[in-house]
Specification:
Blueprint: H1 2-10, E1 15-18, H2 21-35, E2 38-43, H3 50-54, E3 56-61, E4 67-72, H4 75-85, E5 93-98, H5 105-114, E6 122-127
Length: about 130
């Protein structure tokens, strides 16, 4: 299995792993250490919104009543910016999207648009099958 995942990562092919979380985590950590990749873990739940992934603007006022707009950065937005700003990354990035099956259509569409085939990063989508087998 590790050889298949490695082949896909080298060729920028998204990988979908399904199964128990612990085993998938061990595999990803092993591969990332072996290949010296940096892992960016993103948890997806049914309540995850687009702004939870990209960040949102927070408007505040200081003592002088001046308005200030601050972008609340997320793990995903920081990693994407780092990748865009530094074409010569010291480490390749592996984006791990946990529980992608919980994503709303808007979140799934956003992720699909970010991680299209032209993007030079690696993405691993994790599904956790909650159905019990007989």
């Amino acid at each position: 299995m590790i050889e298949i995942i490695h082949f896909d990562l080298v060729n920028n092919v998204p990988v979908i792993l399904e199964g128990m979380p612990t085993r998938k985590t061990i595999i990803i950590n092993y591969i990332s250490e072996l290949l010296r990749y940096e892992v960016v873990n993103i948890m997806i739940s049914q309540s995850t919104k687009v702004e939870d992934l990209l960040g949102k603007n927070i408007i505040t006022k200081n003592k002088n009543k001046n308005i200030k707009v601050i972008l609340n950065k997320t793990k995903l937005s920081k990693a994407l910016k780092k990748q865009k700003d530094d074409n010569q990354l010291s480490k390749e990035l592996i984006f791990v999207l946990n529980n992608l099956n919980n994503a709303s259509p808007a979140v799934f569409e956003l992720l699909t648009s970010i991680f299209d085939k032209n993007m030079k990063c690696f993405i691993i989508w994790w599904f956790y099958n909650t159905k019990k087998s007989n």
